[in-house]
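Practice problem. Given the sequence and the SMILES for zinc ion, write out the predicted structure.
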Amino acid sequence: MRALLLGTGSPPPNPERRGPATLIELGPERFLVDAGSGVGHQLVRAGVRAYDWPRLLITHHHSDHTIDLGHLLITRWIVGQNAPWEIWGPAGTRKQVERLLDYLAWDIDVRRAHMHDRRPPEVCVTEIEEGKIMEAGGVRVSAFLVEHDPVRPAFGFRFDGGGRSVVISGDTRPSENLVRRSQGADCLIHECCDMSRTGWVPGCGWPTLEEKIRDLQSYHTPPGEVGRIAAEARARKLVLSHLMPASTAEELSGAASARYAGPVIVGADLMEV
Ligand SMILES: [Zn+2]
Ligand SMILES: [Zn+2]
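Answer key:
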């Protein structure tokens, strides 16, 4: 089972890192986790043409994880795909997709005026709960709750198949549930927030930089803590993702390695892990 990092960035735009998205593949079976900025381009770079864009699993509805949902939905349809698009996500996903289809309705009508015998795009939404959510093509997919308050529920995903297990944390502060659910994973792809690198301007919503950093700590995980989590989960390999533009690979891997003896990989876009 192959895991390909499509986007390893976070909300601030970064030409080096697209928004959060990961592709899991076993043979012809594909699962896309999150639809961050640029995900469609990255899928094409990974050899997946728009007609074949796979089912989507959403960790949570923060915009950096869903902003290109509309691009995937409409483009897949424009190029001729009529099969309903599967979207799996937390409670609230159906409502968000309905709003998105509402927004796209004008464009869909205008395009259909050129087309023959073409129904509007169809989407099949499944709102998930913790536990096994599907088994397809020899891959068992499980969702587990993580801690990303006030976003509730927020999920991580575990994929078991082809003799391998891959865990994607989604966005979370250090989560004991994640440690339990990712025990012995071959590959743990964990969010990593080097809070000291965050930007701050007056009027951004936090009175001081220190206050913003304190707040980030309540719903993200700093690199040293990611190392501790990987060690407690006995993961065989740790991959850092969801990175800030100003973070440096040496500092991130140094901090994570201080508390985890296994291999630490600082994720990069289009890297197979
Ligand atoms: Zn988030
Ligand atoms: Zn995020």
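Check your answer against the key. The chain has eight helices and 14 strands.
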